[in-house]
Fold this sequence. Notes:
The structure holds two protein chains of two kinds. Chain A has helices spanning 3-6, 9-16, 58-66, 108-118, 124-134, 150-162, 180-197, 208-214, 232-237, 242-247; strands at 20-28, 33-42, 47-51, 73-78, 81-82, 93-96, 168-172, 200-205, 217-222, 225-230, 252-261, 265-270, 273-278, 282-283, 288-293, 299-301, 312-324, 328-334, 340-346, 359-364, 370-373. Chain A is α+β, with helices and mostly antiparallel strands. A six-stranded mixed sheet of chain A has the order 6-7-8-3-9-10, with helices on both faces. Chain A has a six-stranded mixed sheet with strand order 13-12-11-15-21-14, with no helix packed on it. In chain A, helix 4 (108-118) crosses helix 5 and helix 4 packs parallel to helix 6. Mean pLDDT of chain A is 88; it is low at 1-12 and 384-389. Chain B has one domain (65-284): MetI-like (MetI-like fold, Orthogonal Bundle). Chain B contains eleven helices and no strands. The longest helix of chain B is centred in the N-terminal third of the chain and has 42 residues, at 57-98. The interface between A and B is medium-sized, with 22 and 21 residues.
Amino acid sequence: MSQAAEIDPAAQLDAAYDGLRLAGLTKSFAAFTAVDDLDLDVPRGSFFALLGPSGCGKTTTLRMVAGLDSPTSGTITLAGQDITRSKPYQRPVNTVFQSYALFPHLDIFENVAFGLRRRKQRDVETQVADMLDLVELGSQARKRPAQLSGGQQQRVALARALINKPEVLLLDEPLGALDLKLRRSMQIELKRIQTEVGLTFIHVTHDQEEAMTMADTVAVMNKGLIEQMGAPAELYENPRSTFVANFLGQSNLIAGTITSRASDVVTVDMHGITVSVPTGRTHTDGDAGWVGIRPEKVLIGEPGEELDAPGNTIPGGVVTDVSFVGVSTQYLVRMPWGQELQVFQQNTGRVRMFRVGESVELSWRPEYAFVLDQSQDASAGAQQVGVDG
Amino acid sequence: MAETTRRKGRVGYLLILPGGLWLLLFFAFPFYSLVATSLYDPSGSDFRGYEMSYAFGNYVDVIRDYWQPMLRSLLYGATATFFCLVLGYVLAYAIAFKSGRWKVLLLVLVIAPFFTSFLIRTLSWKLLLADDGFVVDTLQFVHILGADDRLLATPFAVVAGLTYNFLPFMVLPLFASLDKIDYRLIEASGDLYANPVRAFFKVTWPLSLPGVVSGTLLTFIPAVGDFINAEILGNTNTRMIGNVIQSLFTDANDYPAAGALSVILMLMILAMVIVYVRRAGTEELL
Lengths: 389, 286
């Protein structure tokens, strides 16, 4: 018997994958399942965001990768090695905790040196000094955590994890406690550091904007499952479920019936108006669907006005609300079937503003629209938009 | 503005007043009286009365006569404190981190002995360690104790009694300290390559030091001065300084010597506490 024949093909596949792989990962608590049969590949060196509302299972997933919670079933492999049952202190994984969890009895220097000292590393002094310089806290080395500001504490927490050069760095809503301005600058800083050190970052957040700005891959999680995964632009432009369409940005979802399917285009009857959508953007097999369109993709004009041919034109709208927010004007337009659609018009200076009560016509390009399964809740994920921790 | 500050100051004084008066009456004055008594002419008696003669020689005399029980007290107190710390830490740790919904019940059980008097509890140890009691019988049966060996009226009985009686004073501050520790810090230390043993010595133990310091003080100070345990569970060779002071006061009516011993005991404990708290590094303790 040859040696190669003894190797299980599945195991061989795992061994070949150098990133982090979660397979069939499940975590059940007494009453509910926090993470449900999750399969996920995180490529080595990527900045990966796990995005979802609170209670969606993202933090539980993170804790299982860190080893702080053990999965009910499933496996976690890192660079081909099964780490499902290994203890947290045996894993080449470090965490930046939401609460920072800095040791209050140690100064900043010793906090950052903690991991190195536990592993009996050499040159602790120089490594820590370099790391503190990286996060611009060199002058604070002998202070206690309680003497630092929230933003500085966050950087200490990052330095304390990063200095160990883990295979995977886990970030559990690390910016949640910071104010908006500081959060923006820390986002840029984190991204810079990730590019510099080239480690795999897994960032858990409920802030869709944060996930999209920082990560190169975003997995949207809901009720213990991954709804959709991909590059931020891909998720935003072509959502596959109503949850993703609403949780990432905002969407108009209009009920429609699919009347014909061709190889490249699908036509939908939307309350008597026929619109077309590319086949690749139609994510339902049934006839009933939601036609989705982002508010900023909708053009608004006077009835009969030539807007942006060859578009889908939807006549008969009446403006019911106008808010001018500077860069754009946001309209609510009541359609003949009673639904109010959102329209964002960019303030280019070449368009005129409409007033409440004016009759308008809406239009969008077919390649911007998408069709979702009508069995999904049209408001799924919507309530979380704008709710920011 | 100045008016309100002044009023606040006045309120502060008023609040201090009741407690301050109480301490003045029942601590400062008796303390003065004790120090004064310790310097009376040692030849005085209840018949002839006492005379203030600044007899500092009293101090030299009592140290010469009673250095043994004094040393024994410190030794017994320290030993009992050590056992209290070991037993109490494990207990407090279990209550703080592992007891779940039984936490309150267990805490009530820790203080439950206080519902009975100190004396009764110590007397019950006398029964427990009695020569024909269950404990001695069992230990003799398994040949840990010889046929003529006893537990009652030995140093072991005194230290065991002290340990038992002062254990709650150790457990409660330790529990308060341990319960306050953010469990996420222990998780973080695990995440940073500390195995459970290291995590304990690098995170849990240092963060519990305030409880260790107050627990050992609350145990050691009363244990050193205790006389009930040595009286009930000990013999003439296990007399502690408290027994000496008590018999000087009540049996021998040698008030100056008793006073001098009391002052020495107090100063000794005070000095040790100061050194201890300095060494434990209160500035390290948040």
